[in-house]
Amino acid sequence: MLAIYVFILVVVVQRVVEVVIANRNAKWIKSQGGYEVGKDHYKQIVALHTMFFVSLLIEVSVIDRSFVLWSVIPLLVFLLAQMGRVWALSSLGRFWNTRIMVLPGAKVIAKGPYRYLRHPNYVIVVTEIACLPLIFQAYWTAIAFTIINAFVLSVRIKMEEAALEEATNYQEVFEKHKRFIPSSNYED
């Protein structure tokens, strides 16, 4: 049981480090003349992710599950998502954020996984929210938060795309890209 808590703690620490990086990047974007969109919506994102980990910890503590071999599948998918997360975040560099930060006139980055789809980081988040609980057979958390996350992202993505289309070359760069399904429509 201790290994489960340690694993979840490692993921939580990773998220805290990401928030620190995001805050640093937000400060830089603001210093360049950028601004934040959807501040109220960001509170929902923070609440969603906080409650996700609380729910996961409660479910793994209350429901006694034994290790099952098929847990390796969501574990491998989760670990692949972690590699994708690093790829997506490093591709955006200082422009990556957990908030919707816009720098007017900035050239939208379309390298790394962004060469193939508009929102690889959101695909990764969806994968993580579905797979992390499944590793530990926390089915209720996986189902409930996958549904809640889908709703929150449906609002966030529209807000983010509208802000980027208004202030950057987002539409021009991503007009042939799908939101979540990789495409080979990228042209250099």
Characterization of the model:
The mean pLDDT is 92. The protein has one domain (2-174): Four Helix Bundle (Hemerythrin (Met), subunit A) (Up-down Bundle). Helix 2 (39-62) runs antiparallel to helix 5 (139-167) and helix 4 runs antiparallel to helix 5 (139-167). Helices cover 66% and strands 3% of the residues. The protein starts with a helix and ends in a 14-residue tail after the last helix. The chain has six helices and two strands. The protein is elongated, with a radius of gyration of 17 Å. The chain is mainly α and 188 residues long. It has a two-stranded antiparallel ribbon with strand order 1-2.
Helix and strand composition category: mainly alpha
Low-pLDDT parts are: none
| Integer-rounded radius of gyration | 17 Å
Distance between the termini: 50 Å
Subcellular location: Membrane
GO molecular function: protein C-terminal S-isoprenylcysteine carboxyl O-methyltransferase activity
Keywords: Membrane, Methyltransferase, Transferase, Transmembrane, Transmembrane helix
Membrane topology: Multi-pass membrane protein
Main features:
188 residues, mainly alpha, Four Helix Bundle (Hemerythrin (Met), subunit A), 2 strands, 66% helix, elongated
